[in-house]
């Protein structure tokens, strides 16, 4: 009867997670697609020039409030720049950083994790020790330090995030491929005469791909946040280009005069970060053969 | 006071899982004061669940849908949760199956044995300590000072089961549910523990609901037996009568499948397929009828 | 056993700290950009620059600089800040108490919120209460502390302006404090008016940092509580007559807390890192806020000093967690 109860609860859990993951996947994916399209076609979509200052139009409220101007849907900041256009152009930088930094971190971390977990021995010992040392640094401080060292700019931000966060991939993939390496089918492949690297790529890698995908999506959300934090403290790219963190920093200063300059980028950022993490969870739930 | 009032009286108890499947099927059984009632059946038959239902510790997913349980005449189903808890704490005890997991690894033995006496029954610490030492003596633990200060992992399985038995009898409960108390022990220790339970039961006059899958144990300890199959009591009899002349085909089959020390070379017969098929269709029919009457 | 464990940890701690010191020292000096150039007005003579370089020891090789710096550190001399022209150790000690107070308030808050919701969720397992707790902790966890800070500023600084959104204490107040542990000292001196003002400033940054941490504690502790609550000794405790709350507090919590404890240690170190940006966001005068200024000003001695102090905090936290784990686990204690 214990068995009956366990299998029962397993079934219901599986059912509910799949049901929930569908809706999450679509909602999160929908928002990310919308933001991505806005970023790609920013010059076509944005109603105004994001850099154009107009002191006649400073601190215009959003469209539903009195005193708003047509064409400035979400209002303007203290220099009269259109907030919506700045958010749309800010999405470009957010997505470039998200994709580039997460992919770089993933490539480095997953490769080292795969090697460490599958081969074990000395490779594992050295890589694990490096990961431990890496983890001893507080991430935000580490990021600020790295950008200070590398100098501001888009590539420094990307490099800084990749340099810090490869350990996240490395730890998870190491643990998973270590488990995979002990499986019978890996043993069978070895008996069948495949080489070690061949087995790693043909047998182990495909089984850790769902985890990599989920982590990748999660990491993109983290990269967006780190970029926002760096531009908030003015250490990201040049101050002229609109970034979400930069807009937030402006909003923080003029919070009592123009709350919308803080609210809209904040909502955008929260939606994007939530979407990335939910999208990752949804992907994992959908493609993980064990959970499915 | 009615002299023949049973210590425990279960009347047509049924439980279901969330998917609606019945686990216990209108189980009725009673345990008289100072009587050992064995509850025997193969694993999955629901025998442990009966004990858990009485003690109010069913898993959350299992729901009682009908039936009453009377502990010394008190209807457990009608009591408020707190009153019910206190009643169960004062009048019953559990000797668990696995002594390795039944003691909290992070607490010393002493407080684990006395906490019921002090915190539920309101005894003084000194009185509880005295009582526990007396019981440890009865279960033949000769160095109570050391044992009381130990953490569970410092004791052997047999020692831990003795401790648990002593703790069960300490509050002079009217009813003890013994849930396969010897199954997890080494064969050599099993006999000692069984003898110990029987001895303490006689001395304290406690009623025991003894859950087991082992007919050999049944023969040694119980006065009456209920045979359970698929959540249904298929036969109920005096132990001696049951062994002399089992009535139900399942009981006969179960006996044939049990090895005997007296005749170790007799061939063992697995339970006959035909018997099981007959039981299965009988139970399916009963479930149908039950479903009709319960909407 | 315990002592041996402690000594081993102490040794690894020293090695880690040395490693961090080396890495930070080298990384900073590899960086392009001349900190001296930023200090001097345009048109300063080469002799002036050379004199300043010599003063800060920047004319020597990196290896020489490192050992000069390290021998100073061992004597308690962390050098002089380039941008603030003060003793680094003094600056760090001036700011560290503010960050420590914030971190401790956050930890207490996270333990209280996370612990309560975990216990409540475990007691009400399988009900709507547990589902609600799951949703709340999921939300608290998915949104990072930086964004929580901004949300709080909007809610309680602008929409319902009941809390202060910047600083550590109201500037018009006359402070009688002799140490930098304002909150602690206000309690000791029974100046509860000051305590109230300090907490009014600290509440939002603390909540922003505590929410994700509380969510992690809540999720993990609830999970391990639920596992423990199915074990035989817990069932036995219920039969003894204890209520579900008593069972959780007396029997389950201690054993379930062990796996959570390790995680709290790791998360607490992340939290110390998180104070950097949250202090900036709320203009809270702590170590993290100073760290960002130091980085922007390329103030090498100050950056080194701060990072080393952060690293020291990290290893101390890990050591504490390790020791607490050993103390709570009788198997390790009497191995």
How would you describe this structure to a colleague?
Helix content of chain A is 75%, strand content 0%. With 292 residues, chain A is an all-alpha fold. The longest helix of chain A is centred in the first third of the chain and has 39 residues, at 2-40. Chain A is elongated and about 75 Å long. The longest helix of chain B is centred in the C-terminal third of the chain and has 21 residues, at 273-293. Chain B has helices at 47-55, 81-91, 109-120, 125-138, 144-149, 157-170, 187-204, 215-221, 239-244, 249-256, 273-293; strands spanning 8-16, 22-31, 36-40, 63-71, 74-75, 92-95, 175-179, 207-212, 224-229, 232-238. Chain B has 295 residues and is of the alpha/beta class. In chain B, strands 6-7-8-3-9-10 form a six-stranded mixed sheet, with helices on both faces. In chain B, a hairpin with a 2-residue loop joins strand 4 (63-71) and strand 5 (74-75). Chain B is globular, with a radius of gyration of 20 Å. The model of chain B has no long low-confidence stretch (mean pLDDT 88). Chain B is built from eleven helices and ten strands. The model of chain C has no long low-confidence stretch (mean pLDDT 85). Chain C contains 14 helices and no strands. Chain C is 76% helix and 0% strand. The chains are: A mainly alpha (292), B alpha/beta (295), C mainly alpha (335). The interface between A and C is large, with 38 and 44 residues.
């Amino acid at each position: 009867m214990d068995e009956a109860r366990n299998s029962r609860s397993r079934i219901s859990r599986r059912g509910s997670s799949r049901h929930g993951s569908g809706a999450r996947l679509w909602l999160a994916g929908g928002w990310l697609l919308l933001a991505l399209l806005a970023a790609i076609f920013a010059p076509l979509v944005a109603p105004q020039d994001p850099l154009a200052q107009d002191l006649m139009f400073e601190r215009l409220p959003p469209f539903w409030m009195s005193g708003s101007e047509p064409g400035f849907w979400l209002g303007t900041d203290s220099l009269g720049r259109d907030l919506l256009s700045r958010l749309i152009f800010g999405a470009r930088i957010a997505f470039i950083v998200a994709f580039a930094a997460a992919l770089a971190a993933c490539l480095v971390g997953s490769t080292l994790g795969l090697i460490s977990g599958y081969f074990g021995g000395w490779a594992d010992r050295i890589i694990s020790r490096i990961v431990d040392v890496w983890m001893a640094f507080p991430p935000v401080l580490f990021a600020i330090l790295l950008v200070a060292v590398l100098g501001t700019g888009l590539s420094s931000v990307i490099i800084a995030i990749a340099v810090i966060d490869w350990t996240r991939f490395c730890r998870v993939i190491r643990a998973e491929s270590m488990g995979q390496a002990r499986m019978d089918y890996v043993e069978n492949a070895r008996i069948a005469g495949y080489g070690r690297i061949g087995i790693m790529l043909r047998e182990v890698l495909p089984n850790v791909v769902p985890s990599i995908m989920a982590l990748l999506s999660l990491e993109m959300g983290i990269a967006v946040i780190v970029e926002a934090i760096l531009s908030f403290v003015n250490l990201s790219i040049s101050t002229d280009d609109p970034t979400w963190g930069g807009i937030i920093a402006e909003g923080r200063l003029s919070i009592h005069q123009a709350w919308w300059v803080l609210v809209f980028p904040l909502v955008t950022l929260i939606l994007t970060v939530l979407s990335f993490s939910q999208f990752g969870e949804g992907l994992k739930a959908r493609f993980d053969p064990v959970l499915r | 006071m009615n002299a023949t009032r049973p210590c425990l009286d279960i009347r047509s108890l049924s439980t279901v899982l969330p998917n609606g499947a019945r686990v216990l099927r209108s189980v009725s059984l009673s345990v008289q004061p100072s009587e050992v009632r064995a509850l025997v059946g193969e694993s999955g038959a629901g025998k442990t669940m009966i004990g858990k239902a009485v003690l109010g510790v069913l898993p959350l997913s299992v729901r009682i849908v009908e039936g009453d349980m009377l502990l010394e005449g008190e209807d457990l189903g009608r009591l408020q949760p707190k009153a019910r808890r206190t009643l169960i704490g004062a009048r019953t005890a559990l000797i668990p199956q696995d002594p390795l997991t039944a003691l909290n690894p992070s607490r010393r033995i002493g407080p684990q044995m006395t906490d019921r006496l002090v915190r539920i029954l309101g005894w003084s610490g000194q009185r509880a300590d005295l009582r526990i030492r007396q019981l440890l003596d009865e279960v033949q633990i000769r160095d109570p000072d050391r044992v009381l200060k130990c953490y569970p992992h410092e004791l052997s399985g047999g020692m831990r089961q003795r401790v648990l038995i002593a703790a069960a009898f300490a509050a002079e409960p009217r009813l003890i549910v013994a849930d396969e108390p010897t199954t997890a022990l080494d064969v050599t220790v099993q006999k000692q523990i069984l003898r110990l339970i029987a001895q303490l039961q006689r001395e304290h006059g406690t009623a025991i609901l003894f859950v087991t899958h082992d007919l050999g144990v049944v023969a040694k300890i119980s006065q009456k037996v209920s045979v359970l199959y698929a959540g249904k009591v298929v036969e109920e009899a005096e132990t001696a009568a049951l062994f002399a002349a089992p009535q139900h085909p399942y009981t006969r089959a179960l006996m044939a499948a049990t090895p005997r020390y007296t005749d170790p070379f007799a061939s063992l017969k697995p339970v006959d397929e035909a018997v099981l098929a007959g039981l299965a269709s009988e139970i399916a029919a009963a479930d149908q009828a039950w479903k009709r009457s319960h909407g | 056993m315990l002592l041996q464990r402690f000594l081993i940890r102490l040794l690894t701690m020293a090695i880690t700290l040395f490693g961090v010191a080396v890495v930070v020292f080298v990384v900073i000096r590899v960086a392009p950009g001349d900190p001296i150039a930023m200090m001097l007005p345009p048109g300063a003579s080469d002799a002036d620059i050379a004199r300043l370089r010599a003063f800060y020891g920047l004319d020597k090789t990196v290896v020489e600089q490192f050992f000069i710096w390290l021998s100073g550190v061992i004597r308690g001399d962390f050098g002089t800040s380039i941008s603030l022209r003060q003793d680094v150790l003094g600056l760090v000690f001036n700011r560290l108490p503010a960050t420590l107070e914030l971190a401790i308030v956050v930890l207490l808050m996270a333990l209280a919120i996370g612990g309560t919701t975990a216990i409540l969720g475990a007691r009400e397992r399988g009900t709507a209460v547990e589902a609600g707790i799951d949703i709340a902790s999921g939300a608290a966890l998915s949104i990072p502390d930086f964004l929580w800070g901004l949300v709080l500023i909007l809610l309680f600084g602008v929409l319902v302006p009941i809390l202060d959104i910047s600083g550590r204490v109201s500037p018009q107040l006359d402070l009688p404090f002799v140490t930098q542990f304002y909150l602690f000292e206000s309690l000791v001196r029974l100046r509860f008016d000051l305590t109230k003002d300090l907490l009014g400033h600290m509440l939002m940054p603390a909540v922003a940092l505590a929410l994700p941490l509380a969510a992690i504690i809540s999720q993990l502790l609830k999970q391990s509580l639920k596992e423990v609550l199915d074990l035989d000794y817990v069932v036995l405790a219920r039969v003894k007559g204890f209520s579900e709350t008593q069972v959780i507090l007396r029997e389950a919590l201690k054993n379930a807390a062990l796996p959570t404890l390790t995680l709290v240690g790791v998360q607490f170190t992340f939290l110390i890192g998180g104070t950097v940006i949250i202090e900036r966001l709320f203009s809270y005068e702590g170590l993290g806020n100073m760290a960002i200024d130091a980085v922007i000003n390329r103030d090498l001695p100050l950056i080194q000093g701060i990072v080393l102090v952060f690293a020291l905090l990290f290893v101390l936290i890990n050591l504490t967690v390790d020791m607490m784990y050993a103390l709570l686990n009788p198997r390790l204690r009497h191995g």
